[in-house]
TrEMBL record:
<keyword id="KW-0326">Glycosidase</keyword>
<dbReference type="InterPro" id="IPR017853">
    <property type="entry name" value="GH"/>
</dbReference>
<dbReference type="InterPro" id="IPR033132">
    <property type="entry name" value="GH_1_N_CS"/>
</dbReference>
<dbReference type="InterPro" id="IPR001360">
    <property type="entry name" value="Glyco_hydro_1"/>
</dbReference>
<dbReference type="GO" id="GO:0008706">
    <property type="term" value="F:6-phospho-beta-glucosidase activity"/>
</dbReference>
<feature type="active site" description="Nucleophile">
    <location>
        <position position="385"/>
    </location>
</feature>
<keyword id="KW-0378">Hydrolase</keyword>
<dbReference type="GO" id="GO:0016052">
    <property type="term" value="P:carbohydrate catabolic process"/>
</dbReference>
<comment type="similarity">
    <text>Belongs to the glycosyl hydrolase 1 family.</text>
</comment>
<dbReference type="GO" id="GO:0005829">
    <property type="term" value="C:cytosol"/>
</dbReference>
<protein>
    <submittedName>
        <fullName>6-phospho-beta-glucosidase</fullName>
        <ecNumber>3.2.1.86</ecNumber>
    </submittedName>
</protein>
<dbReference type="Pfam" id="PF00232">
    <property type="entry name" value="Glyco_hydro_1"/>
</dbReference>
<dbReference type="InterPro" id="IPR018120">
    <property type="entry name" value="Glyco_hydro_1_AS"/>
</dbReference>
Length: 487
């Protein structure tokens, strides 16, 4: 007789929490020996619906180096987590966080990226942050490289375009795994690794002067170097701290066919493959066959060294994490309206509502993604980014009433619960920007995600005072009930 039963809710050890990135919250960009990062030379966007994160040239980088202020470069100031981390983590603990996803600033630990010895002051800062987390029973979930690297590696190696960067990265990761053995249980190698095919933010390589073909050649070659570095880091982690787990992280771009026309279905399948290629390599440990045709038809020739394929096979991740914000539709023709969201790369779905930034809101798509990932990979899954960017306002009563955020999160948590009932092995959920952060794509402050409001405007003016939004108490209730009380 078949004895297995359907799960009825989230597992008891489910990891509820929130997520941030060093270059969006820390500040302290030029203190305690920290070096300049690639994130800190990207100017704030002039159009909030167009990402500026990849718009760099050799000239703009030099201008940023010469500019020793944060006026045009808000990621240099963040929201000053560097000096507010105790206050912020205490607030996370008040909500009941089981886990806090944060990233490390590589240039805080290796200011130039190619030193043989780390900056002790940088390591000490993270010692203190992790100690503060453990003080409240919060597990750190650490992203090793989240949309930044030491700028010096761009100037000397052109970032990940050079294979030499692998050694610099794995020197860094070895230091981390040894220093934080028994302190950090959960690691991620690269944030949204598919961003490397979008340009500078993912690769640290300046390619603005190249043709489209040469850009893609460089980006896929840089990506291969990241794959190898990630695999080496996984092996290091397993050898140095066998109790730790290390995963991959993907920006999930779930897409649907525009119509039942087989041509549209095939076009959507191809788009899906091009998104899942990254996790195919990191979870399955090999390049999928469908990419052979893609590379051939697009004139991309990857250079691999002897042993690379074995490294990928040996360096498979323990779990798969991903960000989920939206879905799109794909057509075999150009007859669909394009979505306006600055992360959307497909057509607009007439059945979905959109946020103020044009991001299509699709909670059911999260359940679809979870099921597809589980069917394809059979490894534990972790939703490490999900949230609603909005312009929050302080009302006449001095509070921030963000019911729209609560509604968004409630609908997505409901669909995660359905996926768990479907049989998906889901580890946890960390909402994006649990405290207001500088936007990754546009470097604005007005686009807020957090449960905690930070008094700072787009120009950096404000007291930096932290204030609880209505969603703060709501999420506290969600965590306390393990996702049962979503009212």
């Amino acid at each position: 007789m078949y004895s297995k039963t359907m799960p009825t809710g989230f597992p008891k050890n489910f990891l509820w929490g929130g997520a941030t990135a060093a270059n969006q919250v820390e500040g302290g960009w030029n203190v305690d020996g920290k070096g300049l990062t690639t994130a800190e030379v990207v100017q704030k966007a002039t159009d909030r619906k167009v990402m500026s994160m990849n718009e760099v040239t050799k000239e703009s980088v030099q201008a940023a180096i010469d500019d020793q202020t944060d006026k045009l470069y808000p990621k240099r100031r963040g929201v000053d987590f560097y000096h507010h981390y105790k206050e912020d983590i205490k607030l996370f603990a008040e909500m009941g966080f089981k886990v806090y996803r944060l990233s490390l600033a590589w240039a805080r630990i290796f200011p130039k990226g190619d030193e043989t010895e780390p900056n002790e002051a940088g390591l000490k800062f993270y010692d203190n942050v992790f100690a503060e987390c453990h003080k409240y029973g919060i597990e750190p979930l650490v992203t090793i490289s989240h949309y930044e690297m030491p700028l010096n590696l761009t100037l000397t190696n052109n970032g990940w375009a050079s294979r030499k960067t692998i050694a610099d990265f794995t020197r860094y990761t070895e230091v981390l795994f040894k220093r934080y053995k028994g302190v950090v249980k959960y690691w991620l190698t690269f944030n949204e690794i598919n961003a490397s095919t979008w340009g500078f933010t993912g690769t640290g390589a300046i390619d603005s002067d190249l043709s489209l073909h040469d850009q893609m050649q460089l980006r896929y070659q840089a990506l291969h170097h990241e794959f190898v570095a990630s695999a080496i880091a996984v092996k290091q982690c397993h050898e140095i701290d066998p109790e730790a787990q290390i995963g991959s992280m993907l920006a999930r771009m779930q897409t649907y066919a525009n119509t039942p026309n087989p041509a549209d279905v095939r076009a959507a399948q191809l788009q899906d493959q091009l998104n899942l290629f990254f996790t195919d390599v990191q979870v399955r440990g090999e390049y999928p066959e469908y990419m052979n045709r893609y590379f051939a038809e697009n004139g991309i020739e990857l250079t691999m060294e002897a042993g690379d394929e074995q490294l990928l096979a040996e360096g498979k991740v323990d779990y798969l994490s991903f960000s989920y914000y939206m879905t799109t539709i794909t057509s075999a023709t150009d007859d669909v309206e394009q979505a306006s969201g600055n992360l959307s790369m497909g057509g607009k779905n007439p059945y979905l509502k959109s946020s103020a930034w044009g991001w299509q809101i699709d909670p059911v798509g999260l359940r679809i993604t979870l099921n597809e990932f589980w069917d394809r990979y059979r490894v534990p899954l972790f939703v490490v980014e999900n949230g609603l960017g909005a312009e929050d306002e302080i009302s006449a009563d001095g509070k921030i009433h963000d019911d729209y955020r609560i509604d968004y999160l409630r609908q997505h948590i409901e669909q995660m619960k359905e996926a768990v009932k479907d049989g998906v092995d889901l580890m946890g959920y960390t909402t994006w920007g649990c405290i207001d952060v500088i936007s990754a794509g546009t470097s604005e402050m007005s686009k807020r995600y957090g449960f905690i409001y930070v008094d700072q405007d787009d120009e950096g003016n404000g007291s930096l005072k932290r204030m609880k939004k209505d969603s703060f108490d709501w999420y506290k209730k969600v965590i306390a009930s393990n996702g049962e009380d979503l009212g």
